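2024-03-11 09:14:02 DEBUG pipeline.ingest accepted 1 chain
2024-03-11 09:14:02 DEBUG pipeline.ingest length=212
2024-03-11 09:14:03 DEBUG pipeline.predict start
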Amino acid sequence: MESRKQLISMKGNKKVHMGIIPGHFATNHSHINYYVDLNSIKTSFRMSRETAKMIAERYATTQIDTIICVEGTETLGAFLAQELADANVASVNSGKDIDILTPEINSNGQIIFRDDAQKKIWNKPVLLLISSASTGWSIERFARCLDYYNGKLVGACALFSAIDEIIGIKVEALFTPKDIPDYNTYLAADCPMCKAKQKIDALVNAFGYSKL
């Protein structure tokens, strides 16, 4: 499977790239014909820093007090907070302190912010930073959680997103299906690869893949 991997650089910054592997893959919510590998962006010091610069440009005029990091985006979130709060940059967040939080998910799959973390969300402008969005289900889930804790969601940023908007929330993305011209996502019941009896190559999520 790895032998089929290709690298695609981000438009505007060749130092940032994602990997793609064609095949038949199953996520929790859909089937897709490409596995999108974003792990280098989340784990490489240099690439995370470069990515944070690109994201910060998109939110230079957006007030942000807290960044909620999910799907392994904590390193990127730290660099992003640094870029947004840089006193030498023309940004509404210049010189301020920005909190970085990762929600807890309990054994029932519920998203939780403990009492001492809630004060960093309550009535605060919050940016959601997520690895990928194929259907938008995860963004919607976290948005409803933040609403429960009275957080003011001012944006959702995904490294890769197949959607532009979900429940009225604009989704900013560094990579989109335009970077993978024949990328498709399907409900499991409608998947043409399943109907053609094509074997599933791997189960995938934001943290990687497990071959079958």
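2024-03-11 09:14:41 DEBUG pipeline.report The two ends are 11 Å apart (CA to CA).
2024-03-11 09:14:41 DEBUG pipeline.predict end
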